[in-house]
Amino acid sequence: MSESTPTVQFLTVEGEFAPSGPAEEYASYLEGLTSEDLRAFYRHMVVIRRFDHEGTNLQRQGQMALWVPSHGQEAAQVGSASAAKPQDHVFPSYREHAVGLVRGIDVLSIVELLRGNTHGGWDPTDPTNGNFHGYTLVIGSHTLHATGYAMGLQRDGVVGTGDPEVDTAVISYFGDGATSQGDVSEAFVFSASSQTPNVFFLQNNQWAISVPVRVQSRTPLYLRSRGFGIPSVQIDGNDVLASFAVTAKHLDAARGGEGPQFIEALTYRIGAHTSSDDPTKYADPEEHAHWVARDPILRFEKYLRSLGEGDDFFAEVATEAEDFAADIRHRTLALTPPSPAIMFDNVYSEPHPVMQEQKLWLERYEASFEEEKA
Ligand SMILES: Cc1ncc(C[n+]2csc(CCOP(=O)(O)OP(=O)(O)O)c2C)c(N)n1
Ligand SMILES: [Mg+2]
Prior knowledge:
By secondary structure, this protein is an alpha/beta fold. The protein has two domains: 9-333, Thiamin diphosphate (ThDP)-binding fold, Pyr/PP domains (Rossmann fold); 340-373. It has helices spanning 28-31, 35-60, 74-83, 97-103, 108-115, 141-156, 182-194, 213-216, 240-255, 285-292, 296-306, 311-333, 353-373, and strands spanning 9-11, 17-20, 89-91, 170-175, 198-204, 207-208, 211-212, 232-236, 261-266. The longest helix has 26 residues, at 35-60.
């Protein structure tokens, strides 16, 4: 990895293929991509953006308590997630809708989680969920979970065997604000000490709610891991090819037993932090416009057109995204509230007398309303 600052970029803002920064170190990872892979990158980015807008709409219509937008971060997420192998494990924070889509979860379960219908959303141990672990709202805490999981993989003997079907890595996603948390520093310490197969993927979207990144760090964030002995690289996070190639290479290194790796993807949170936030109170409209001009989807569309992709394909994807959003809306409106009694079910792994007592109390309490009516 390069010691100098240049950011890895393959696609310019205008969608031209012009590798810059230490891009050459990663170029071979693009060679295996087929035109079907490139179309899938585009399709995933467009579908998840439409899903994200539907999420905001549904929250505004009272269908969810909260929505966490991902608009603007599609290339960072789709590129990196597409670089992971099926056996790899993924530890997201709470904005990684596109990563979940690529890993194969039914993203309706994100809606169910934010609606309060479920406590966890999806079961990460279910093989159909792509080793996509639960969303984590406690900032940075899951970098420790990811490190612990990677230490477990070492003990299972599935790191550095040289067998591409066996070797496994862990990728964790977190934000610029999270790098100020002690948990992330602790994860770096344990990961570097044990040389675990972790890729730490930072989406620097320039904001931690209303706190801009410049207030949180005097140095570029990709430099932070180096003091812990973790090599790092900064990429243009709005370039899906950079995100794919760089993550693919560093996941390979992690699986191969070369220890932890850190990637800082420069991107931007185009929307609000959550549906409870109003960025017009603190965000600079000029900065916003600067990043809108660097939109990851438009850039990739220009690139695909330059390769000969025509209107039919883009129209087909637009229709697919509309249908996807309509299906999410339809299934959200069909959700029924769960029984309040399920809140006791997974507090402990085994039945517990205090939980049992509280569950019975709630049942009697609920039944008292029926008695009142009778
Ligand atoms: C330990 C902890 N402290 C504070 C919060 C409140 N909080 C929620 S999101 C957030 C900002 C996180 O910013 P960043 O890591 O950049 O991620 P982003 O939301 O930008 O994706 C904060 C401080 C929290 N959820 N957990
Ligand atoms: Mg942030």
